[in-house]
Amino acid sequence: MAIEIVFLGTSAGVPTKNRNLSSIALRPKQSREWLLFDCGEATQHQIMKSSVSIPKIDKIFITHLHGDHIYGIFGLLASRAMSGTDKAISIYGPDGLEEMIETVKRLSGLNLPFDITYYTVKGSQRLEFEHYTIETVKLSHSIESIGYIFIEKDKKGHFDIEKAKSAGISPGPIIAKLKRGETVTLNDGIVIDGKEFISPPQKGKIVIISGDNDSPCLFEKYGSVDLMIHEATYTQRDFDKLERKFKHTTAKDLAATAQKMGVKKLVLTHISPRYDTAQRETELIKEAKRYYEGEAILAKDLMTIEI
Ligand SMILES: [Zn+2]
Ligand SMILES: [Zn+2]
Q1: Domains and CATH numbers, the chain
Q2: Three-state secondary-structure class, residue 307
Q3: How far does residue 144's CA lie from ligand 2's centre (Å)?
């Protein structure tokens, strides 16, 4: 089972008929848990149309406190309570997140049957979990914004006992030596190399999930990542025409950075409502493809990617 990523909302600022507000769910390899990154308004409605399950969300990572990334968390927590689970939940994000959630809980008389542990993320941090690490990067936006990097732990090669058995090797001290990768000479003089039965080690995958950000180069230290999901709110042409410059990235800037980094797959998300026609959408992806040679995808709501 691969790492699974579901785009629950891909619009910027306001929802459109085709795009809900920011939220991405990620299921680590061979796991039942879902990690949720941002929770724009109506994220729980999107979850109902997807393979994501609210009681299986035990960790939520919030990039920043703009409404299009957070207003759905209150309803989601309330629904999680209604689902009957009393499993604790951890919520990671910038300063002020705990105050925001606790204030809404208090004012709306929301009593949750589970504990919430809040982690305030400050700058670059490493959050260690059993099968993966999440690193954080401070981004450049109009308010404090955080990027999250999901880093799967490398897997050592494992000894294939069935392969050894079918090669006629019976359990015992010989197997123990082969497991250590040693070479063994059997009674009949046949030489067996243990390494032949050990699968090659697997390098963990790396997925970048950005918050709102006008400087994708802040991720450059990660080099060749497997998947980069980053906002591309405008095309460069439209951005240049804006009277007021908001702190967002253009498709051109993102694509050029991803090319420089050697990113294997790039997803553009957080799409301005001005691109809400098929024709306008292609302008974004066309611009990205001019500057990036890898696989570039324009995110759509409820799209799933496996890596
Ligand atoms: Zn936003
Ligand atoms: Zn924002």
Answers
A1: 4-155+211-306 (3.60.15.10), 161-197 (no CATH)
A2: coil
A3: 9
